[in-house]
TrEMBL record:
InterPro entries: AAA+_ATPase, DNA_repair_RadA, P-loop_NTPase, RecA_ATP-bd, Ribosomal_Su5_D2-typ_SF, Ribsml_uS5_D2-typ_fold_subgr, Rubredoxin_2. Belongs to the RecA family. RadA subfamily. Keywords: ATP-binding, DNA damage, DNA repair, DNA-binding, Hydrolase, Metal-binding, Nucleotide-binding, Stress response, Zinc, Zinc-finger. ATP binds at G95, E96, P97, G98, V99, G100, K101, S102. Residues 66-215 form the RecA family profile domain. A motif (RadA KNRFG motif) lies at residues 252-256. It comes from the Bacteria. GO terms for cellular component: cytosol. GO terms for biological process: recombinational repair. It comes from Nocardioides marmorisolisilvae. Plays a role in repairing double-strand DNA breaks, probably involving stabilizing or processing branched DNA or blocked replication forks. DNA-dependent ATPase involved in processing of recombination intermediates, plays a role in repairing DNA breaks. Stimulates the branch migration of RecA-mediated strand transfer reactions, allowing the 3' invading strand to extend heteroduplex DNA faster. Binds ssDNA in the presence of ADP but not other nucleotides, has ATPase activity that is stimulated by ssDNA and various branched DNA structures, but inhibited by SSB. Does not have RecA's homology-searching function. Residues 351-467 are annotated as: Lon-protease-like. This is DNA repair protein RadA. GO terms for molecular function: ATP binding; ATP-dependent DNA damage sensor activity; damaged DNA binding; hydrolase activity; zinc ion binding.
Amino acid sequence: MAAKAKTAPSPYQCSECGWETAKWVGRCGECQAWGTLVERSAPKSRVQAGPVTQKAMPIGEIPIEESQARGSGVPELDRVLGGGLVPGAAILLAGEPGVGKSTLLLEVAAQTARNKHRTLYLTGEESAAQVRLRADRTGGIQDELYLAAETDLGAVLGHVEDVKPTLLVIDSIQTISASDVDGVPGGVTQVKEVAAALIRMAKLRNITLVLVGHVTKDGSIAGPRVLEHLVDVVLHFEGERSSRLRMVRAMKNRFGPVDEVGCFDLSASGIVAITDPTGLFLDTRHGPVPGTCVAVAMEGRRPLLSEVQALVTLSASERPRRTTSGVDSARVAMILAILQQHAGIRLHSHDVFVSSVGGARLTEPSNDLAIALAIVSAHHGQSLGRQVVAVGELGLSGELRRVRDLDIRLAEAGRMGFRSAAVPAEASSTVGQSRLMDGLRVVDVDTIATALRMLGMTGQESSVAGG
């Protein structure tokens, strides 16, 4: 019986998601993108054993001194990275065009050079003079910061051989191409080969490598997903165009936590780390306003107080509008159903608008209670007061569920001057009871109906805010 022949790899591959097919089609069958299928060259197989780069050693004898993280000079970035830049690490920073990726990395490069660590910044999207102008504006001129504009991989490796940096910044990976690899710059084959060569070089020379990556229309990282597997750290740089606030989130981190976030202020003079961003998400008004409530969200291990605003009006159409900004629309729809079923708040004939203040993204379930209270407050035209925070997840039966890191959230609320907090009850025997915690009066509630009753949503004085 004849042996079954090996199946040849598909000659066409999607440049967006890496989907493979035997024949060319106009639309990718995986990500549904148009015109992204490109022909790739057949891979060369290697079956013979070759020389090893380093002899295998017992794990306890592997030296770790050369892989200790060093500070980048930007504390918020060090917080996200888990301590700083690790020699030999490959970091991928992705974000929308114009969000400030190049400005952030130029600041990191300048701070690294200021600490007497030689840095090489290679740009493929701008000229060296354009980057120099930005460095003049942001105060990034340093003797140990080297700058060049290149788009060829061989030239990039030549610069590394000549400068011998400890930090290498590539802006961006989609603009670098290898002359001996088929495909256009930014294509699947080119991005994979160029990234693999740069990462291999960084590991061998113990250089911290930072790659800038483009994003697609839906906000995901452009190029093959294998690029995210090759690097050690994947960071997303995000922010609203109308706001100066920028955030760095870790989506993958082999050297630290993946639930941290760093906050920055982007202006014409450069980018500055914000070590205490809580006040950015609170309204500056001093008087009580109906339709507002303060939530305490956890961004990584950092508690952030964020204000939720709601507007409820009678609808002029048969299908009332449900509009959200910074809040999950599906979560708001669920909260409206819970309010109608378990609290008697009927909003089926009203338009409901819910928004967060300052560009904050409130996606945590712990914000459910604050969103619900803001909606009911707007519906009744009755203020909760300026000194009340609400923390808790709403269940479909109307109960309030415990959330993680409650003590940390309440401590932050007390530090910011809030006097009262509504939180889920730890046990049925504690419902309605209050306790003092760091000057904060904490009231336990078990259901949304109990919370509304205790907060005086029927026109009575609030028993929580009055404390």
